[in-house]
Structures are given as structure tokens and as C-alpha cells.
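Progress against Task 2.4 (sequence-to-structure conversion) is shown through the following example record, which the project officer requested during the mid-term review.
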Amino acid sequence: MRNYIEMDSTPLGEKCINAGNSIEMQELEVKAMIDMIIRNFDPFPEGFYLKRNRNYHDFGIYYDIRLCYEEGDGEVESHSEEFTFYLESNWPENWDDEARGFLESQGYFEYLKNQPKATINQFAH
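C-alpha cells generated for the chain above:
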């Protein structure tokens, strides 16, 4: 049976684009993260793949990354399930040089410093 866990679109020690802010910048963030995971953890076991996931929240759209895997038979974890939990436990702390360079070239960090701050009143009904 297929299953997944959801992970952040950035390394653990890095800031992210706030929900509701630039979709373009959020998509760059997810691309950089997925590419970094592939660079650092590929080859993936059979039955495992990464998926960009769009979520809708009161504050706007945000993305996360799904780690998709085949479950084991209940007695024994599958290789893809085992790998998924390994990756979850070893989620990167910071952007690597290649991801940082890509994001820098796209104006990501400048946007991140100056991104709009949402207020609760913006979303009151």
C-alpha cells in the first residue's frame, strides 16, 4: 500500500516563504529542496519518490514535500519505507552550496528578507 509523510519545503535551520506570499518564490524553494535531496540521497529505493504538494490555508497557499513510499507487510518495513524514515530523520539542516547559489540567482533571499508580513485582519471574514 502507498503512503507518505509530509516534510517542510526548506531545510530545518532555514527560513521559508510565508503561506500566502509569492507562489513563484515558494515554487523555487520547493524545487531547490527537491533537487538538493536528489543530489544528496539518490539513488532512491524502488517504490520511493518525492512529490511537491500544494496546500490551502486561511492565510493562503503553501507547499510542502511528500516523501511517498510503499508500506511493508506489517511485519517488515519495505526498503522504500525504511528509506523514508531515514530521510525524515536526516532532513538537511541548511541549504547546500548549489541550492543556495540557485536561490540567490533567483532573488529568493532578497525576497525572503523583505517578504510581506500578514496580519490577522487581512483574513478576517
